Amino acid sequence: MQLRDHAAIVTGGASGLGAATARRLAAQGAKVAVFDLNAKLAEAVAAEIGGVAVIADVSDAASAEAAVVAAAKAHGPARVLVNCAGIGVAKRVIGKEGPMPLADFEKVIKVNLIGSFNMLRLATAAMSKLEPLSTGERGIAICTASVAAYDGQIGQSAYAASKGGIVGMTLPIARELAQFGIRVLTIAPGLFLTPLLAGLPQEAQDSLAAAIPFPRRLGHADEFASLALHMIDNPYLNGEVVRLDASLRMAPR
Hints:
Layout (H helix, E strand, L loop, with lengths): L6 E5 L4 H12 L3 E6 L2 H11 L2 E4 L5 H15 L4 E4 L10 E2 L2 E2 L2 H26 L11 E6 L3 H4 L5 H21 L4 E8 L5 H4 L3 H8 L11 H13 L7 E4 L9
């Protein structure tokens, strides 16, 4: 799919993987709506790329619905959705203070898994009503999982479960939406230099990078964005989860 003049939504678009993706989509001529809870950062990215900032809680039905309507009002219905919004909480099932509070597990599932599905259902419903392009496509939805879906570490039970859910729903949703000419794909990144890891001491970053075979470094957000662009451009990619991790297979800790 050629992006020029087509509308796109990037959730979590105010920073990290989402911001890099929003910039790359805009550079290809897409009209990008930057969805995020952080209004200040979303507005800064939107201003930089000539897009529109939309405040959205992806885990809330009403908020997400209103955000999709606002984006469509500005740019028209989106043909591209890239779900990057997510949170990570490192907490053991049984910690020093007892069992993990159920609310902590629920929050991660709600934002990462339910939030991704919420945006996907809303964006693709609008896509399904668009006229097909010359390729027969009406649109594409890309979600963000994680290598934790396969190689979750101690303290990642909630995060790994949420990302595993995204991996699990990719193929059945792709099969379901094929009738509308809508493709569904997922990227499972490894250790990336996002704001979360960038805040760690250099020694800690180097320790994480040492577990990566080649190239022995943390991933760059623009490398995630490059894969998203390739997925959009290649109409024969569908229903697939692609690990983007430099062959990372972390040993249990």
